[in-house]
Design brief:
single chain, 14 strands, four-stranded antiparallel sheet, five-stranded antiparallel sheet, alpha+beta
């Protein structure tokens, strides 16, 4: 181009030949016009551009040798994925006996699991519509629906057919309760559960996940209304199962021997140790900090009343609360409630004495008490696992027979083809 500076080229020197596969470098040629002593310089192009450009490679043979060495270093068995390996060749003849062996393993395992499940005791005692002792002619469900926050007493009898000589566990079972709802599952404050509530004058604000269950207005004895923080906050804690259940063995018409029920040992040790801790001043109910806190809206007791007889099982470390806070995956679920604290659980007639407080009609659910023993292999009665193993074993054997038929028929056809070709 006429308006750009072009360095003079020495016609006596031959140009070095550029190596193949290299980027073509810009060339600077003499101006096509007549040579003059003065040239026009374009300020937009650096004057030292020619000196900045890399020079062409001079020794092509050296570069080619180095390139060959690099390529040779990459031609290894490992980099080219040519290492020796066992590559099984699957066909009907090699597969059918594998499926057959797996099927013959699965079916006996399923039978053993079913036998183990059948060896456990399980007694289900429904009490959703138990008759009220204080309101004849009415069920407790109707009583607490008509008077929210009230309590109702009822009794339910059941029979134990045979003696049990090892641990018996008591569960409560709810149906149609969706603890797996996303908004419900996240409605809690992890820091509050760890006892981090702040100090007097510098209280911690509950997590935004506790919305609608974080504050409540409380009227004191003077008629003044005060906004207090709920502890524990959130929808999960607010809906805590709060029926109180005791059990006794009926020995005579007027004699009912109390059965000792253990309230601890039902929660995960890891939950109690790492996820739930009482606040610093929990053992001082009269401390000024508690003037700013109150219990959840649907509770009929405070956190100090969850287990007052056992300080280590009270407050936020109460195992009933910890068990409830671990939400269930399905709408019909059981949660551990008590452990029968005696080695021998004799056969006979028993009675449940229930303080009925938990409402289930609002979500069309039911309540039951389940007594069961534990199997060393699958826990409480659960025939589903054994049935699943047996079904899978049957399917494997059926597939093995299909593969065997294909293998035999294919070999026979090949044999006939060979005989006919001869």
């Amino acid at each position: 181009m006429a308006d750009r500076l072009r360095p003079e080229s020495d016609s006596s020197q031959p140009r070095p030949r550029a190596k193949k596969n290299q980027n073509v470098q810009p060339k600077f040629e003499e101006d096509a016009g007549p040579s003059t002593s003065s040239t026009v310089i374009d300020d937009s192009v650096p004057q030292d551009l020619g000196r900045q450009l890399p020079l062409p490679l001079e020794n092509e043979e050296t570069i080619e040798t180095e390139l060959e060495e690099v390529l040779r270093s990459r031609k290894t068995a490992f980099k080219q994925q040519e290492l020796k390996a066992w590559k099984p060749s699957f066909n009907m003849g090699s597969l059918y006996w594998k499926f057959l062996i797996l099927g013959l393993i699965y079916i006996p395992v399923g039978i053993l699991l079913n036998l183990s499940s059948d060896s456990t005791m399980e007694i289900i005692v429904p009490y959703t519509d138990c008759d009220s002792l204080d309101h004849p002619g009415k069920t407790c469900a109707d009583v607490i629906e008509a008077s929210p926050g009230s309590k109702c007493r009822c009794e339910v009898e059941f029979d134990v057919a045979e003696d049990v000589h090892h641990g018996v566990y008591m569960y409560y079972a709810l149906t149609n309760f969706y603890q797996n709802h996303r908004m419900y599952v996240k409605s809690k404050d992890e820091n509050q559960m760890l006892g981090d509530i702040g100090t007097v004058g510098n209280l911690k604000t509950p997590s935004s996940d506790c919305e609608y269950y974080d504050y409540v207005s409380v009227t004191d004895s003077s008629g003044n209304s005060k906004r207090k923080t709920i502890i524990p906050c959130g929808a999960i804690a607010n809906s805590l199962f709060n029926d109180s259940i005791t059990m006794c063995r009926i020995k005579d018409t007027n004699i009912c021997e109390t059965v000792d029920l253990k309230r601890t040992g039902i929660a995960w040790d890891s939950d109690k140790q790492y996820k739930f801790k009482n606040p610093t001043h929990f053992n001082e109910p009269q401390h000024a900090i508690w003037d700013s806190f109150t219990h959840p809206k649907d509770w009929n007791r405070t956190i100090w009343d969850l287990d007052p007889a056992n300080p280590e099982n009270n407050g936020l470390q109460n195992e009933d609360l910890i068990v409830w806070m671990r939400t269930a995956a399905l709408p019909n679920f059981r949660k551990p409630y008590r452990i029968i604290h005696q080695d021998n659980f004799p056969a006979g007639k028993y009675k449940l004495e229930i303080e009925y407080s938990y409402k289930t009609k609002s979500f069309k659910g039911t309540k039951s008490i389940v007594l069961c023993t534990q199997s060393p292999f699958i826990g409480s009665k659960n025939p589903v696992i054994g049935i699943s193993f047996s079904v899978v074993g049957g399917v494997l054997i059926a597939v093995a027979l299909v593969f065997l038929y294909i293998f035999v028929s294919t070999n026979r056809r090949r044999r006939l083809d060979l005989e006919s070709s001869r």
